[in-house]
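Input record, target 12 of the design panel.
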């Protein structure tokens, strides 16, 4: 769906351009696109003739990978919403404000699957992977946020490229 005001009535058969933009941003290796998707998603499509839009959508954009990433984004969003009640204070805010970073880390793992870019993976398989991997990702994000930035407000952390890079680097080193 790319028409202004159009809504996704059947998520099993439809995706929106807004979803595609966020999923494509969070799927990039460079976490800065995920941060832009969190803080100023409009900046990703401000000028469709150059980056960052051309990074997200170009001749090598893979429809399977994009669709799988959108499905994962939907699953992760629901997962985070369901888990919010298990957390309090800053940790709960990490799930709300860190949703794009958590999605970035989840997609980083999932896109390593051999069939991720060659077929549409069954939703139940993606749900199982999110259930399996996302709790650990959440705990690592919360731990690094609280360790590296104990006094910073979570919304400010997850809208800052440098801070998100530092969290991602700390997590990837620990893996």
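The sequence produced for target 12 reads:
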């Amino acid at each position: 769906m790319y028409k202004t005001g159009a809504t996704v009535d059947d998520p099993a058969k439809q995706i929106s351009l807004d979803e595609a933009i966020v999923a494509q941003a969070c799927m990039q290796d460079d976490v800065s696109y995920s941060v832009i998707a969190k803080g100023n998603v409009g900046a990703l499509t401000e000028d469709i003739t150059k980056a960052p839009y051309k990074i997200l959508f170009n001749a090598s954009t893979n429809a399977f990978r994009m669709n799988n990433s959108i499905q994962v984004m939907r699953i992760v969003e629901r997962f985070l919403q369901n888990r919010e009640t298990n957390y309090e204070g800053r940790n709960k805010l990490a799930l709300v404000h860190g949703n794009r970073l958590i999605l970035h880390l989840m997609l980083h793992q999932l896109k390593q699957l051999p069939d991720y870019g060659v077929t549409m993976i069954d939703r139940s398989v993606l749900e199982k992977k999110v259930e399996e991997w996302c709790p650990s990702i959440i705990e690592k994000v919360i731990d690094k946020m609280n360790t590296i930035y104990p006094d910073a407000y979570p919304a400010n952390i997850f809208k800052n490229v440098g801070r998100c890079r530092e969290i991602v680097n700390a997590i990837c080193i620990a893996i």
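Residues 123-148 form the longest helix (26 residues).
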